Amino acid sequence: MEALAALAEPTRRRIVDVLRLRECTVSELVAAVGMSQPAVSKHLRVLREAGIVTAQVRAQQRVYRLEPAPFRELDAWLAPYRRMWTHHLAELERHLDRTGTDVDHHPDPRRGIPADADRRGVAADVDGRGVSARVDNEEEQ
Predict the structure, then answer these.
(1) How far apart are the C-alpha atoms of 29 and 138, rounded to whole Å?
(2) pLDDT tens-digit readout, 26-77
(3) Which of these, 27, 28, 9, lies nearest to 18 by C-alpha position?
(4) What is the pLDDT of residues 102-116, one digit of tens each?
């Protein structure tokens, strides 16, 4: 499962995203990801060693492309997790259907703050520890 380790690095994922659309030379990848040529070459070496990309020499350039085998391997490894989450989400949907819960209902993050708070000069900060409010009263200043 070298592919998973190689793809753990965000820059390598960006390179793979570019190569997903088309084959590229190193200079095209440098422009696409905004890194130096030596840095991109190092990432390409890791991707090549993991079997994710191959290079073909055309004239005096190397043209990189994705290889499907590592992605099939990753897909096969992910399949049981995909099935598990599909099952769990289907169970949740059935439960919500039975209880009549509205799935699209999102609670107001400003809970406990009056609807006209902004008009009254009350500014609220929701910081994950609760709601704190500040009253801006021009008359007292």
Answers:
(1) 57
(2) 999 999 999 999 999 999 999 999 999 999 999 899 999 999 999 999 999 9
(3) 28
(4) 655 555 554 554 454
Report how far apart, in Å, the C-alpha atoms of 73 and of each of 13, 33, 67, 90, 125 are: 16, 26, 11, 26, 47
What is the phi-psi region of residue 56: left when phi exceeds 0, alpha when psi lies from -120 to 50, beta otherwise? beta
Tell me the three-class secondary structure of 11-37, residue by residue. HHHHHHHHHHHCCEEHHHHHHHHCCCH
DSSP-derived 3-state class of residue 66:
strand
Q: According to DSSP H, which parts of the chain are helical? A: 2-7, 10-21, 26-33, 37-49, 68-99
**Prediction pTM value:** 0.63
